[in-house]
Amino acid sequence: MLDKKDLENLKSKAEKAIKNAQSVFELEKLYRQFLGKKGEVNQCIKMLSKATPEKRKEIGKRINEIKQFLQEILVKKRAFFQQEMIKKALSEERIDITAPGVKVERGHLHPLTLVEQRVEEIFQSMGFSVVLGPEVETEWYNFDALNIPKDHPARDMWDTFWLKGKEPETRKQKAKSERLLLRTHTSPVQIRYMEKHNPPLRIVVPGKCFRHEATDASHEFQFYQVEGLMVEERGKISVANFKAVIQEFVKKFFAGDIKMRLRPSYFPFTEPSFEVDIFWKSTKEWAEVIGAGMVHPKVFKAAGLNPKNWQGFAFGMGLDRLAMLKYNIPDIRLFHSVDLRFLKQF
Ligand code: PHE
Q1: What's the mean pLDDT in 228-257?
Q2: Comparing 53 with 225, which gets the higher pLDDT?
Q3: C-alpha count within 13 angstroms, C-beta hemisphere, residue 102
Q4: Residue 281 has pLDDT above 80, yes or no
Q5: What angle do CA 244, 246, 248 make, to 5 degrees?
Q6: Which of 10, 177, 245, 255 suits a disulfide with 140, CB 3.0-4.6 Å?
Q7: What DSSP string runs through 180-246?
Q8: Among residues 55, 64, 68, 67, which one has the least CA distance to residue 2?
Q9: How far apart are CA 263 and CA 279, in angstroms?
Q10: What is the separation of C-alpha 108 from the centre of its chain, rounded to a whole number of angstroms?
Q11: What is the mean pLDDT of residues 60-88?
């Protein structure tokens, strides 16, 4: 039969065990042993049913007191362990403010972006505006409007990536040929701009171009051009103006020490046409960098302007080539190589 002495024994046994517990884990075990559903305290309560009513009242009260007491010391002990854990974590994870910092690597602009920005800056200083055009073009803007009709041998100058499908209805222009392609040069933007803006005008158009050709040290199937177009009233502009503008550009871009020459050339959309060569010091050779000429009357017509009233010059320069010359880069493929050893030099 359960008596008071047994109860006091249980109390001191449990109290001692809880006080001596070394871990939260041990504490949980003790909880189950003494206070759990099948724990020793509950066993005592069950036994009560067999006691006389007076005894039941007296001992029942004591059991409840003991239960409450044990619960309290267990909660306290658990809080103690938690405190210990926090203290330990804080001391171990303390920030060492004297430790040397980690250097944050800062990115910077790609050499092609730097060159593009510089080119824009120079032309803006001469009154040119920067204009953009689409990379997916129609056959009309890329070729026909620039006086390069289908089956014209000059089309072979631009190996073309043709796209499936046609110009979507919503974007449809009055253009006749709606076959789509990746623009092979920035010249289509000449037409697009003159359709919407009346001369006199001066624009430069930086942008990505694509040609379906094998790559080597000086050719990529994806490259950058900057188109230039200046149109004035007929009789107010000539090749001399073109030469002056380009000379000024080259002087500023290469900071003076560079040789250039104008050489006759052929483009269907200019007449006469030129090639501007720049002397490449490292190879001691002339490099073609800019194609140019006086805007062909047919180009004005295609854009809806009367060639009897207007005259102008246009040019297209290879941005990658300009960058290669300026920074002495031997291979155009380095630009897209994602090689940090290359990129970090700029
Ligand atoms: N579009 C020509 C090319 O890609 C360059 C050019 C532009 C030539 C403007 C003359 C006038 O080669």
Answers
A1: 93
A2: 225
A3: 2
A4: no
A5: 70
A6: 177
A7: EEE-SSSTHHHHHHHHH-PSSEEEEEEEEEE-----BTTB-SEEEEEEEEEEEETTS--HHHHHHHH
A8: 55
A9: 13
A10: 12
A11: 91
CB of 180 closer than 6 A to ligand 1?
no
Q: Which residue type occupies 118?
A: R
270 Cβ inside 6 Å of ligand 1: yes
The number of beta carbons lying within 10 Å of the beta carbon of residue 70 is 23
pTM > 0.90: no
Interhelix angle 111-125/239-253, nearest 10 degrees: 130
User: What distances in angstroms separate CA 97 from CA 25, 56, 93, one per listed residue?
Assistant: 35, 65, 12
Written as six digits, the tokens of 270 are 């200019």
pLDDT at 144 over 70: yes
How many angstroms does the Cα of residue 228 sit away from the middle of ligand 1?
Answer: 9
pLDDT of residue 269: 97
Whether 314 lines ligand 1, by a CB cut-off of 6 Å, is yes
3-state secondary structure of 264: strand
Tokens of 183: 């623009």
Between CA 326 and CA 288 the distance in angstroms is 14
Decide if domain 111-343 falls under CATH 3.40.50.720. no
Contact 316 CB / ligand 1 (< 6 Å): yes
| Ligand 1 nearest-atom number relative to CA 187 | 1
Of 136, 126, 238, 112, residue with least CA distance to 192: 136
